[in-house]
Amino acid sequence: MSRTYPEPISERQQTPADALGTQLLAEFSDAKAARRYVEDRWMKSLRQYKGQYDPDVLGRIPKDANGRFLKSTVYIRHTKAKVDTLRARLLDLLFPSNNARNWGISPSPVSEIQPDIITEELQRRQQEGRAIPQDEREFLSEIAKERADRMAQTIDDQLNGQIGRLSYQRVCNAVINSGIIFGTGVLKGPLVEHRIKKQYARAEDGTWLLQPTQDHPYAPYYEHVPVHVLYPDPSASDARQMLYVWQTHLFTRRELMDLSKNPGFDQARILEYIVSNPEGDAEVTEHEQELRNLSDEQTAFEHKNRYRVLERWGYLTGSDLLTAGVDLETLRAAIPDFVEAGAYESCVWMTQGGTVIKAALSPVEGMAIPYHFFQPYKDDASFWPDGLPDVIRDLQTIINAAARMMIDNAAIACGPQIAVNVSALQNVEDARSVYPGKVWLFSTSEDLDRCFRSYDVSAHISELMAIGERFSQYSDEVSQPRYMSGDNSGVRGAGDTASGLSMLMNMASMPVKDIVRLFDCGITEPFIEDMYRWNMRFSTDESIKGDYEIMATGSTSLIAQELMGKRLMETMAVIASPQLSEATDFDALYSHILRAMDLPKDIKLSPEKAKQRRYENTLMEKQAQMESIIAECEKRGLPVPQVLQTVAAQIAGVQSPGDIQPVPGQQAMLTGAEPSVGGEVNAA
């Protein structure tokens, strides 16, 4: 199936959009230069996580003539353990195994519902035969609640059903990982894309072709954006203060051609640019080369047949958009007055040479910059805060230094240092070859006394190990303690008991809870709110639309649920006393424990089976008591009738269910009858 494209422009024509491209290109250069200072810190953090020394550190370790290191280069991957523990902890809190949402949607306190929606809901309830509340306020509240629930379900389906893209949880996994290592994790979206599901089908000529089978006209998409390709407004110290954000893309020729088919892109200009640059225009930046050097590939590389395209989100004036080709009526629809001076939420795509290939208003109103930031160690000093590797960098350096010194000291102290008088040896002897049982040849007998001398080097392994352990403990104070990952070997006192260790883990969770709240404020709340705006703008399902509030209640409730589970287990030990147990509804308590600990509900018996189980257990207990009393009384020589009367008094309070028949002889004991020695029952 052939495609047709417009003919490329043969001669380059200057347009008013070129002036805008030149202006924006200067803006991008400023943002790129302003971010350069933080790139070195990112590389240090990444090397630290991967367990690699910085080049300046390796340069200070001596080498031999062949380039081999003469001292130890061991690297203790302490940072990786801390990062992985924190990431796993956050994912466990934010995305529990029972697939509970870490966000929620509820109606506004005073929901505004249009009259036509009220009429539609009245008709729907009448058709379904549902009761209509007489109180108007109650009826409006029910409408808002039902629509909010449907909106929440729609968003939940969109977060888990991206065609050809990662799920929301996997995207957030990458965002969290970037936030911990680099100090910033970025989630982009939701944006609009046209999705077409394809599968192979047989054509008329018998050949199999990949053809579209299902068309999704509008769908939201979102993705994780690496910090290395993002260039925010350098004058902003907070994400809410940004006027623009730049993002760079590397496209192959095919990808750039596919981009030109999307709505709003100038296809003729894209084709013209490809023809003018048939080999691509992307050059390897210094930062990209450093990233490549982290792998085993230390050689230089090139971006062959690739194009670097710039994407800008932010505000532009009406005059800038008019020069870029945006329709005047479109601008007036967004801001009726002061079109040229107004600040418009817009999106611009351009080549790195300044050729504007798209200029349009933001597709979702109120979403000028569709980037959301997770910064777990945010401070006011910079837009780019420290990551966990920055926080423990000095401690990691000391731990590595202690480990290298320990290995070097052990290598030297494990045997003596030998001094050899080479002149005392015969010429055939190799002074550097020393092994057990070797025979040494000397020229004269006097050489035996002046040939060798050995020196022992003191070992300081225990002192160096203590240094490494001490600073490893210091790192627990500014990061995740080691017992959070199951290692309580270095914990004394409270950590020696299960309850004490549980208390320590609860206290260590306090900083994690703050990080969870930062994730909610930076990612969950604004992103879910934008998903709500997206559906209000593009969804064709009118039954989900309404006036809602977005709440990131999930993360907070999940933490509260975890604490509730621990408190319930502690309560079980408290109410074991007879005084409290008599006033406790254990059935309700057990239900709360199952819910708080995310255990399946089917492990709880039904009331009928629980009653049966209690009767059987009580009956077994009473029978055991009966046998014990009979044995004790017979041991003391008491008559059998008195023994049976005593046993009957012990089990008289046991009531058997109707569907269970008492064992032979038990009915006589329950009614107070006294069996005779021959088996006949006599009245007591």
Q: What report would you give on this structure?
A:
With 684 residues, this protein is an alpha+beta fold. It folds into four domains: 16-390, no CATH class; 416-455, no CATH class; 552-603, no CATH class; 608-682, no CATH class. 46% of the residues lie in helices and 14% in strands. It has helices spanning 16-50, 55-59, 78-94, 115-128, 136-160, 168-182, 253-260, 267-276, 286-293, 318-323, 328-334, 388-391, 393-413, 461-478, 498-538, 553-574, 578-581, 586-596, 607-636, 640-651, 666-670, and strands at 104-107, 185-202, 208-225, 230-232, 244-252, 306-317, 343-351, 356-361, 371-374, 417-420, 452-455, 548-551, 674-675, 681-682. It has a five-stranded antiparallel beta sheet. A three-stranded antiparallel beta sheet has the order 3-2-9. Strands 1-12 form a two-stranded antiparallel sheet. Mean pLDDT is 79; it is low at 1-12, 494-504 and 654-684.
In short:
The protein has 684 residues and is of the alpha+beta class. Helices cover 46% and strands 14% of the residues.
Radius of gyration: 38 Å
The level of helicity is 40-55%
- How many domain units? 4
Shape: flat
Q: Estimate what percentage of residues fall within beta strands.
A: 5-15%
The total count of strands amounts to: 14
Number of helices: 21
Distance between the termini: 102 Å
Spatial order of strands in the largest sheet: 4-5-6-7-8
Ranges with pLDDT <50 over ≥5 residues?
Answer: 1-12, 494-504, 654-684
Sheet/helix structural class = alpha+beta
Describe the main β-sheet briefly: 5 strands, antiparallel
Mean pLDDT: 79
